[in-house]
Automatic annotation (TrEMBL):
GO cellular component terms given for this protein: cytoplasm
Domain of life: Eukaryota
Naturally occurring in which organism (per UniProt): Phascolomyces articulosus
GO molecular function ontology, one term from the record: guanyl-nucleotide exchange factor activity
InterPro entries: DBL_dom_sf, DH_dom, FYVE_RhoGEF_PH
Residue stretches making up the DH domain: 1-157
SMART domains from the UniProt entry: RhoGEF
Xref: PROSITE patterns: DH_2
Identification of the protein by name: Dbl homology domain-containing protein
Gene3D superfamilies: Dbl homology (DH) domain
Alphabetized SUPFAM superfamilies for the sequence: DBL homology domain (DH-domain)
Residues of the signal peptide: none
Amino acid sequence: MQPMVIAMQNKDPLLVKKSGDIPTLFGHLPQLLKVSQELIQMLDRQVPVEHVFMALQEELTIFLRYAVHYKTYFKTIRKACQTNVLLLSIERECLARRDTNRMGIADYLIAPIQRVPRYCLLLQDLLKHTETKDPSHYELCTAFKMMTTLASVMNINNV
């Protein structure tokens, strides 16, 4: 992210056609990274999963904001990968490499959106293996409902 911001500030024509492309393509990335880092740190500290999701309830709405703009991001990056020499080079390299699963830059844009259903599946699985008498069961239910609601709203927005 930092090289992109520096290029934007220097108005590097090789990287972007106009400085507005950076916020368009990567505007939500810092917030998405922050939420992901917070989630990982809390899990590393062995905070119960249901507490993690409930504590990050407000921050997780970034996934919805990202999803609302996903189609624009996808079209913009596809177009940029066809017209921008540097991005075209990166795109070709990504498509050729095994360690990138031969996916292009635009293909990775869906990854943040795919996290929400995965979180739902994780919580659903934990619920399945948690006794209803367990004190954490209620909070797991609440976290699961919260995440499934988020996933549903994202789905309504045609993502």
